[in-house]
Write a structure and sequence with these properties.
Elements (H helix, E strand, L loop, with lengths): L8 E6 L4 H11 L4 E6 L11 H19 L3 E4 L2 H14 L4 E2 L5 H7 L4 E6 L1 H4 L2 H10 L4 E6 L3 H9 L6 H8 L5 E2 L2 E2 L2 E4 L8 H7 L5 E3 L2 H14 L13 E5 L7 H9 L3 E2 L9
C-alpha cells in the first residue's frame, strides 16, 4: 500500500498530557489520521533538563517510534522541547516535524491595549528563541514574559482528576496581568501546551477578562499543510482514525484521565523502552 492509499499517520511527543491539546485540534483538521501520542511523563518536566540531556532523550524517543510507526509527520507538542530540540530532531530523522512555539505574531495583531503576556514555563521564557520571536513579530507591543514554575504540573493534576488549589493557579498567572496607567493586558499567549487543560480555571481566576491565545489551531493547520504537501488529501475522513497513547512511566490512568483519553479517541498502549525519570 502506498502512502496515498492509507490514512496519514501522526506521531505526537510531549512531556505528559499537554500533547492532548494539540492532538485535539489536529483531530478537527485531519480526523482520518491514525495518531500515536508518546506522553513522556517519566521525563516531566522538560524544563528541568539540560539542553543536551533533553535533545538526547527526545532522540531516544523519536528514532525508534519512527521505525515502528512510520509517521508521515511528527508533532513536537511542547514549547520547551521545540525551542531546544527541533533542529536536532530534523537533522536526525527524514520525517517532517512540526514544532509548537509561542503565538507571538497573532498576539501582536490581536491586542488592542498593546500589552501582551507570554505565559510559559521558565525554560521557555528564557530561551533566545522566544525573545527572537518577540523581536521579529512584536514590534510596537509591550510583551511581559511570565515564567510559571508549577502551572504545567497543576494542569497535569487537574486533567488526571485531582483537586488543584485555585490560589496556587492564581499565583502562577498573576504576573501576566499588567495595569499601566489604565492600559491593561488583553492577550495572554499560552506558551505551554499543558495550559489549555486549565482554561476553565484560568478564565475564572483572571483578575479581568483576556484572550487566552492557544497555538493549537495554528499548529493543526500546519500539520494539515505538511500532510497535503506529501500527497495526502486531508480532512475527508468520515470517522476518527485510530489513536493510542503511551506513557513512558507505565502510568495506570485514573478513571477521570481514562475518560479524558477516551474523549480524544485514544486507547492506552504499553511503552516498551524504559527511561529513568
Amino acid at each position: 500500500m502506498s502512502i496515498f492509499e492509507r490514512a496519514p499517520r501522526l506521531l505526537f511527543i510531549d512531556s505528559g498530557l499537554g500533547g492532548l491539546t494539540v492532538l485535539r485540534a489536529a483531530r478537527q483538521a485531519v480526523p482520518e489520521a491514525d495518531v500515536r501520542l508518546i506522553a513522556d511523563d517519566a521525563g516531566f518536566p522538560y524544563g528541568a533538563r539540560s539542553e543536551a540531556g533533553l535533545i538526547s532523550r527526545l532522540l531516544e524517543l523519536v528514532e525508534p517510534a519512527v521505525r515502528h510507526f512510520a509517521p508521515d509527520c511528527i508533532v513536537l507538542a511542547c514549547n520547551t522541547a521545540s525551542t531546544i530540540a527541533l533542529q536536532a530532531l530534523r537533522e536526525s530523522v527524514a520525517v517532517p516535524i512540526v514544532g509548537t512555539v509561542p503565538a507571538v505574531k497573532p498576539a501582536a495583531a490581536l491586542t488592542r491595549s498593546g500589552l501582551v503576556s507570554v505565559l510559559a514555563t521558565p525554560a521557555t521564557v528564557t530561551r533566545d528563541y522566544t525573545r527572537a520571536l518577540i523581536d521579529r513579530f512584536g514590534s510596537g507591543v509591550r510583551f511581559t514574559l511570565a515564567g510559571a514554575p508549577s502551572l504545567a504540573a497543576l494542569a497535569e493534576a487537574h486533567a488526571s482528576g485531582e483537586a488543584v488549589d485555585d490560589e496556587a493557579i492564581a499565583r502562577e498567572i498573576a504576573p501576566c496581568f499588567v495595569d499601566d496607567g489604565g492600559a491593561k493586558t488583553d492577550v495572554v499567549v499560552l506558551g505551554c501546551t499543558h495550559y489549555p487543560l486549565l482554561l476553565d480555571k484560568l478564565d475564572a481566576l483572571a483578575p479581568w477578562p483576556v484572550v487566552w491565545l492557544d497555538p493549537a489551531p495554528a499548529v493543526a493547520r500546519r500539520i494539515a499543510n505538511v500532510l497535503a504537501n506529501v500527497g495526502h488529501i486531508v480532512g475527508v475522513g468520515a470517522k476518527h482514525g485510530s489513536g493510542e497513547i503511551q506513557f513512558t512511566s507505565g502510568l495506570s490512568p485514573s478513571p477521570a484521565l481514562l475518560q479524558l483519553l477516551q474523549s480524544h479517541h485514544l486507547t492506552l498502549s504499553p511503552f516498551e523502552a524504559a527511561f529513568a525519570a
